[in-house]
From TrEMBL, chain B:
<dbReference type="GO" id="GO:0006886">
    <property type="term" value="P:intracellular protein transport"/>
</dbReference>
<keyword id="KW-0653">Protein transport</keyword>
<feature type="domain" description="GAE">
    <location>
        <begin position="636"/>
        <end position="751"/>
    </location>
</feature>
<dbReference type="GO" id="GO:0016192">
    <property type="term" value="P:vesicle-mediated transport"/>
</dbReference>
<dbReference type="Pfam" id="PF02883">
    <property type="entry name" value="Alpha_adaptinC2"/>
</dbReference>
<keyword id="KW-0813">Transport</keyword>
<dbReference type="InterPro" id="IPR002553">
    <property type="entry name" value="Clathrin/coatomer_adapt-like_N"/>
</dbReference>
<dbReference type="InterPro" id="IPR013041">
    <property type="entry name" value="Clathrin_app_Ig-like_sf"/>
</dbReference>
<dbReference type="InterPro" id="IPR050840">
    <property type="entry name" value="Adaptor_Complx_Large_Subunit"/>
</dbReference>
<keyword id="KW-0968">Cytoplasmic vesicle</keyword>
<dbReference type="InterPro" id="IPR011989">
    <property type="entry name" value="ARM-like"/>
</dbReference>
<dbReference type="GO" id="GO:0030121">
    <property type="term" value="C:AP-1 adaptor complex"/>
</dbReference>
<dbReference type="Pfam" id="PF01602">
    <property type="entry name" value="Adaptin_N"/>
</dbReference>
<dbReference type="InterPro" id="IPR008152">
    <property type="entry name" value="Clathrin_a/b/g-adaptin_app_Ig"/>
</dbReference>
<dbReference type="InterPro" id="IPR008153">
    <property type="entry name" value="GAE_dom"/>
</dbReference>
<dbReference type="InterPro" id="IPR016024">
    <property type="entry name" value="ARM-type_fold"/>
</dbReference>
<dbReference type="InterPro" id="IPR017107">
    <property type="entry name" value="AP1_complex_gsu"/>
</dbReference>
Length: 192, 756
């Protein structure tokens, strides 16, 4: 089984933490520190596998984010890389050219997507489409959209009007978008 | 009261903070606002507040005051509340918290909710972090959901069941009926999680394993369909259909086929098919191949299949992708024991990996290379490994050096080669060699009698070059001390003998004594070596001078040695040649080899190194300085006494006073047996009053021969700082004519000179 999944930036700031076994808070902080130190110290073209205590650590960098997955010794490392990639693809499909800012501002959604993909340290759904469909249906059930998307697009423009550029995690391409008044955004936000 | 600020607004605000202090201030302000909002039991914005709290928690700030709020959110009817509530529970409420159990009822209700997404939330939370109590309470609900026709819920219930089993293994039985037709599902999600559930059950219970063996044909069929089926957009990953499921099935097959001939045979074909047909251009194909190889190696596959597996690993080794090379090396390491010959075929590729730039790969390649060394390839392999030792990072050097020593010991084609190899390691990685290698090497050198001259010559030359590597210096000093005569007389046969004078040798050894690079241990070696040369060289005066200088050394260790050696020159000169003669061949023991040679402290307890009984006067493998203590005390004039004499067992005490410490009395017991049969398993134990300290050293033997044919001796050292009257209680145990005898006695008749 997988033991934990961490997402952190190149400066070592934590963006997501999922733990599949009960661990005291203090120890979680220590593990996060250890992981960020170990992974950020790796040379650029090294292999993606590390050993730490009795676990295998699989890490992969996507643009500015490091995905760090700890698996038990009998698990398949190469498949773990595929698990990380699948999660990134799911995020990308949901957010549309996902970038680190999306995950920062919509961290709870990143968790919801993760919880449709993994459960108890194992994969629960192998089909991308089904996971996406489930998330969209769940979103529809929400009594109000998450924090302020559709309320006042004009206001958002006042705050952040103009064109924004961000690096997409998957394709590392640039995207720009212009916000116009009256447009509806379901659950995305663009911000500096 | 204005509405609390939105989550994303808060995130935006906090990100504008320029310093840690500014951020802390913002967060404290917001936490205060959230706290008062919680106090007011504000239902509308509870969800927003908890979400903000979770963000602050991720930044590292405490959020425990939100735990109860999560429970309230879970109990709410609104889906958004539940979503955030369950997320908060998973982040803040693991089983170590007191309020954890309060969730149980809410989860139970939600497991029976009319909306499947609510049920999904409950299953997810239970499956991620349910405690044992919760699992016990809710296992029934999970089992019910495992039988539902709703595939969304079924797959979650399966993984939830896995979690329940992990937490409470006794509950495994109750899920058995539900597993009956899990594999006939078409839905891949359910199929995948079912395979995980079956795997978990088989791993935990041999009975379950036997029960599920009958599923092998069905699993083989499913796997076959996955491979043969055409493109399926829903599950396709780079041209392969549902690799996650394939790997999981392969793993279950591995568990089912292990040590079972029939099952293994049933899977042979499909394994061969997967191994040959899987596309290897992308990582995902290689992930499947990797799992296949692991399965082939673990079950009772036919030899053709095993060779195929090893060849796949061999191909992996040539892959450009580092991850794949790493995985190949790891797998080969696992299989090298069982399929040694097959792995040997890839030896040259493995050895090439020693030159890889990646640290993880280098380490694996090194471990594997050592595993592949055998009598046939030792020369070639050692050349590569020594080259690796020269050029590798410091983190590898210690392990590599140890590996080289081990391999050389096992497979050395000749003594000369062995010594050359050791020399090479000591000179290139001398400072990284482990401490226990020094005594092992010394023993090796001692036992290669015909190589002594060659060895000492090479070590001497190495010392001339470099005295910074302590293990090398220590071994060299020891050898020069022992074999200095061979060095000076130029007797080397193996190579051109060098011309060295006694003075040059002493110069080198004295250089070690004064050098800043030498550690105290090394200095001890050097001094002892110089001393030994007093019986091998003619320039005794020079040696006497050196030894007396160190009699006032600040280093207590050196001082003690020098003083004792001095005493040897003065009072016991007649014993010096016998004491310092050549070391005999040492037998390797199971515990530590001749570490006592290098124990510098006169107070160490020598372990029982030799099982041969050696009379105390001549050389044995006990610490050299300890020898002197024994001898120095022979004629100090304290009369011996009989401590015990009963049932044919007589124990005499003889006394020596330890020099320079007058508070230590050294007592040697001599046990003799006047009965007709040997006393075996003889153990002597002693205890003294609190103001004394006792040290009991190893006995010469534990068999006291019959009819006074010999004695068992053992040394007791008693520290008596307060100069009180010596008293002792002794306990004797031995076996005589098959029956065990035990006796206690008080010894009070110590002569006054022994403790005054």
């Amino acid at each position: 089984m997988m033991r934990f999944l961490l997402l952190f930036s190149r400066q070592g700031k934590l963006r997501l933490q999922k733990w599949f076994t009960p661990i005291p808070e203090r120890e979680k902080k220590k593990i996060i520190r250890d992981m960020t130190t170990m992974v950020l110290a790796r040379q650029p073209r090294s292999c993606n596998f590390l050993h730490w205590k009795d676990l295998k650590i699989i890490y992969k960098r996507y643009a500015s984010l490091y995905f760090c997955l700890a698996i038990e010794n009998q698990e398949n490392e190469l498949l773990a890389l595929e698990v990380i990639h699948r999660y990134v693809e799911l995020l990308d499909k949901y957010f549309g050219n996902v970038c680190e800012l999306d995950i920062i501002f919509n961290f709870e959604k990143a968790y919801f997507i993760l919880d449709e993909f993994l459960l108890g340290g194992e994969i629960q759904e192998t089909s991308k489409q089904i996971v996406n469909r489930c998330i969209e249906s769940s979103d529809m059930l929400q009594e109000y959209y998450c924090e302020g998307e559709t309320d006042f697009p004009g206001t958002w423009r006042k705050y952040h009007g103009g064109v924004y550029e961000q690096t997409c995690i998957l394709t590392c391409g640039l995207k720009g978008i212009e916000i116009t008044a009256g447009e509806e955004y379901r659950s995305r936000m663009y911000c500096i | 009261m204005p509405a609390p600020i939105r989550l994303r607004e808060l995130i935006r605000t906090i990100r504008t903070a320029r310093t840690q202090a500014e951020e802390r201030e913002m967060i404290q302000k917001e936490c205060a606002a959230i706290r008062s909002s919680f106090r007011e039991e504000d239902n509308t914005y509870r969800c927003r507040n908890v979400a903000k709290l979770l963000y602050m928690h991720m930044l590292g700030y405490p959020a425990h005051f939100g735990q109860l709020e999560c429970l309230k959110l879970i109990a709410s009817q609104k889906f958004t509340d539940k979503r955030i509530g369950y997320l908060g529970a998973m982040l803040l409420l693991d089983e170590r918290q007191d309020v954890h159990l309060l969730m149980t009822n809410c989860i139970k209700n939600d497991l029976n909710h009319s909306t499947q997404y609510v049920q999904g939330l409950a299953l997810c939370t239970l499956g991620c972090m349910g405690s044992s109590e919760m699992c016990r309470d809710l296992a029934g609900e999970v089992e019910k959901l495992l039988k539902t026709s709703n595939s969304y819920l079924r797959k979650k219930a399966a993984l939830c069941a896995v979690h329940v089993i992990r937490k409470v293994p006794e509950l495994m039985e109750m899920f058995l009926p539900a597993t009956k037709n899990l594999l006939s599902e078409k839905n891949h999600g359910v199929l995948h999680t079912s395979v995980v559930l079956l795997t978990e059950m088989c791993e935990r219970s041999p009975d379950m394993l036997a029960h599920f063996r009958k599923l092998v044909p069905q699993l083989v069929r499913i796997l076959k369909n996955l491979i043969m089926s055409g493109y399926s957009p829903e599950h396709d990953v780079s041209g392969i259909s549902d690799p996650f499921l394939q790997v999981r099935i392969l793993r279950l097959l591995r568990i089912l086929g292990k040590s079972d001939d029939d099952s293994s045979e049933a899977m042979n074909d499909i394994l061969a098919q997967v191994a040959t047909n899987t596309e290897t251009s992308k990582n995902v194909g290689n992930a499947i191949l990797y799992e296949t190889v692991l399965t082939i190696m673990d079950i009772k596959s036919e030899s053709g299949l095993r060779v195929l597996a090893i060849n796949i690993l061999g191909r992996f080794l040539l892959n450009n992708d580092k991850n794949i090379r790493y995985v190949a090396l790891t797998s080969l390491l696992k299989t090298v024991q069982t399929d040694h010959n097959a792995v040997q075929r890839h030896r040259s590729t493995i050895v090439d990996c020693l030159k890889d730039l990646d640290v993880s790969i280098k380490r694996r390649a090194m471990e594997l290379s050592f595993a592949l060394v055998n009598g046939n390839n030792i020369r070639g392999m050692m050349k590569e490994l020594l080259y690796f030792l020269d050029s590798c990072d410091p983190e590898f050097k210690a392990d590599c050096a140890s590996g080289v020593f081990l391999a050389a010991e096992k497979y050395a084609p000749s003594k000369r080669w062995h010594i050359d190899t050791i020399m090479r390691v000591l000179t290139t990685a001398g400072s990284y060699v482990r401490d226990d290698s020094v005594p092992n090497l010394i023993q090796l050198i001692t036992n290669s009698v015909e190589m002594h001259a060659y060895t000492v010559q090479r070590l001497y030359k190495a010392l001339l070059d470099d005295i910074s590597q302590q293990p090398l210096v220590q071994v060299a000093s020891w050898c020069i001390g022992e074999y200095g005569d061979l060095l000076v007389s130029g007797q080397c046969e193996e190579e051109e003998p060098i011309q060295v004078t006694e003075d040059e040798v002493l110069d080198v050894l004295e250089g070690l004594l004064v050098s800043n690079l030498s550690t105290p241990v090394t200095r001890g070696y050097a001094l002892t070596a110089i001393m030994k040369l007093s019986t091998r060289f003619s320039s005794v005066n020079r040696i006497k001078k050196v030894v007396s200088i160190y009699g006032s050394s600040i280093d207590v260790e050196l001082q003690q040695r020098a003083v004792e050696y001095n005493a040897l020159f003065k009072k016991y000169d007649h014993m010096r040649p016998a004491l310092l003669e050549r070391m005999p061949i040492m037998e390797k023991t199971a515990t530590n080899g001749p570490t006592e040679i290098v124990q510098t402290n006169g107070e160490t307890e020598p372990s029982v190194v030799e099982s041969k009984h050696l009379p105390p006067v001549t050389h044995s493998c006990i610490s050299q300085s300890f020898d002197y203590l024994l001898l120095l005390t022979l004629c100090l004039g304290i009369p011996p006494m009989t401590a015990y004499n009963k049932n044919g067992l007589k124990i005499d005490f003889t006394f020596e006073r330890a020099n320079p410490n007058p508070n230590i009395a050294v007592i040697t017991i001599h046990a003799s047996n006047s009965t007709e049969a040997d006393m075996t398993d003889f153990v002597f134990q002693a205890a003294v009053p609190k103001t004394f300290q006792l040290q009991l050293l190893s006995p010469s033997s534990n068999v006291v021969p019959a009819l006074n044919q010999g004695t068992v001796t053992q040394v007791i050292r008693v520290l008596n700082p307060q100069k009180q009257q010596l008293r002792m209680r002794i306990k004797l145990t031995y076996t005589l004519k098959g029956s065990a005898v035990q006796d206690l006695a008080e010894v009070n008749n110590f002569p006054p000179q022994s403790w005054q």
